């Protein structure tokens, strides 16, 4: 995803984790999106879900050199 700051600088979140942190603690948009996904899809623990496939395609579009992609849960 991309985030634009007040000065118009665009930041790309290649880690796909720091976007919510960049938006700040308890950002209502992030909270609502998380609740929506958990309520309608469930949480993931080691199983592939449709959302992961959609995200993988987006990553591939952004980084065409990526040949193989895997999501993992570190347990931390």
Poorly predicted tracts of residues: none
Structural class: mainly alpha
The number of helical elements comes to: 3
* Counted beta strands: 2
- Please state the overall shape, judged from the principal axes of the Cα atoms: flat
Give the mean pLDDT: 78
Task: Spell the H/E element sequence.
Answer: EEHHH
Rg, nearest Å: 14 Å
What characterizes the major β-sheet? 2 strands, antiparallel
Strands side by side in the biggest sheet: 1-2
Strand content: 5-15%
Q: In percent, how helical is the residue content?
A: 40-55%
Please report the distance between the alpha carbons of the first and last residues: 23 Å
Description:
With 76 residues, this protein is mainly α. The chain has helices at 18-23, 28-40, 50-62, and strands at residues 2-4, 10-12. Strands 1-2 form a two-stranded antiparallel sheet. A hairpin with a 5-residue loop joins strand 1 and strand 2. The model has no long low-confidence stretch (mean pLDDT 78).
């Amino acid at each position: 995803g991309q985030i634009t700051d007040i000065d118009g600088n665009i930041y790309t979140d290649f880690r796909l984790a720091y976007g919510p942190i960049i938006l700040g603690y308890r950002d209502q948009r992030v909270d609502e999106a998380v609740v929506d996904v958990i309520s309608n899809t469930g949480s993931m623990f080691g199983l592939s879900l449709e959302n992961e496939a959609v995200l993988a395609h987006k990553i591939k579009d952004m980084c065409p050199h990526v040949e193989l992609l895997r999501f993992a849960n570190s347990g931390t």
